[in-house]
Amino acid sequence: MSTTTRETTIEADETLPIIRITREFDAPPERVFAAHVDPDDVVRWLGPHGYTMTLQRWDAETGGGYRYTHVSPDGGEYRFFGSFHEVRPAERIVQTFTFEGFGDSVALETMTLTALDGGRTRITGTSLFDSVAARDAMLASGMETGVVEGYERLDALLLDA
Amino acid sequence: MSTTTRETTIEADETLPIIRITREFDAPPERVFAAHVDPDDVVRWLGPHGYTMTLQRWDAETGGGYRYTHVSPDGGEYRFFGSFHEVRPAERIVQTFTFEGFGDSVALETMTLTALDGGRTRITGTSLFDSVAARDAMLASGMETGVVEGYERLDALLLDA
């Protein structure tokens, strides 16, 4: 396990309103994919440490939708909703994403799973915004902490399974 | 009716991979909105003159999805699918869009309806692509003809109703 890379890379594109995220996991694509679509798994890892997540809706399939709430340790509520454009098992998830605190801003998110040697997986995520200002507002909102800590929780879930 | 403007404006953004479309209609927002979500209306106007449209799925509501086929006069078939991020009656529709002939390219489309004097409506559409190349490929695909002719058919539908 000495070669394991668990660093989350989060990059803003130089010219387009895009955020790119790369992360590797110690589980095969089928398992990492399942953790992104199975509602019992999702509530165990998505979001920062110490938050609880409740699903108002979760239909993780092509043409489906979702709506969920994160509750912080001090009781603050954060609501998100979106639709699933395409859910292609173990390969690709394309979905929309709105953080209700950001008004009408919508991001289009694409996640691709790539099998690595040793039963590992690299996920590559792209979040596309309709303006550079909206992208930068998302970066400034604390989303990096949420992503990094969420993937640490996902590591633990994958070890546990 | 002498002041009616029925010109469709289609513009490519200078720096972002966006297409913007503006069009006015001789009907109020409620009616123009209905023509975009009612499946019986949609199949009567969406797409170029002479095409027939069949719906494999049509759930035009927040978190819903769609899949349809256009058949050209010479029998060519063109398939499209996507999801509805948000459907806000008479105000706004946000959806994803894939033309299956374009591989995995996905656009995020936002349409806003604005009430004008005289019971008329202006719609403003934005299609956001993940690269300038994908946006330019869509412009080169003949989409402009489809949009312009579709709105001509929508004019006729609105007069007919």
Describe the structure.
The structure is a homodimer of 161-residue chains. Chain A is 27% helix and 40% strand. The longest helix of chain A has 18 residues, at 143-160. With 161 residues, chain A is of the alpha+beta class. In chain A, helix 1 (29-37) packs across helix 2. The model of chain A has no long low-confidence stretch (mean pLDDT 94). The radius of gyration of chain A is 15 Å and the shape is globular. The two termini of chain A are 17 Å apart. In chain A, strand 7 (107-116) and strand 8 (120-128) form a beta hairpin. The first copy, chain A, has one domain (9-160): Alpha-D-Glucose-1,6-Bisphosphate, Chain A, domain 4 (2-Layer Sandwich), CATH 3.30.530.
Notable characteristics:
homodimer; about 160 residues; alpha+beta; Alpha-D-Glucose-1,6-Bisphosphate, Chain A, domain 4; eight-stranded antiparallel beta sheet; about 25% helix
Put the structure in a nutshell.
Chains A, B: Pfam families: AHSA1. The structure is a homodimer of 161-residue chains. By secondary structure, chain A is α+β, with helices and mostly antiparallel strands.
Order of helices and strands of chain A: EEHHEEEEEEHH
The general outline of chain A is globular
Structural class of chain A: alpha+beta
- Indicate the CATH class of chain A: Alpha Beta
CATH superfamily of chain A: START domain
How many structurally independent domains of chain A?
A: 1
The radius of gyration computed from the alpha-carbon positions of chain A, rounded to a whole number of angstroms, is 15 Å
Which stretches of chain A are low in confidence, meaning pLDDT under 50 for 5 or more residues running?
none
Number of helix segments of chain A?
A: 4
| β-sheet strand percentage of chain A | 35-45%
Whole-Å distance between the termini of chain A?
A: 17 Å
The most extensive contact between chains is: A-B, 31 and 31 residues
Looking at CATH, which topology of chain A would you report? Alpha-D-Glucose-1,6-Bisphosphate, Chain A, domain 4
Give the strand line-up of the largest sheet of chain A: 1-2-8-7-6-5-4-3
Mean pLDDT of chain A: 94
| Biggest sheet features of chain A | 8 strands, antiparallel
Oligomer: homodimer
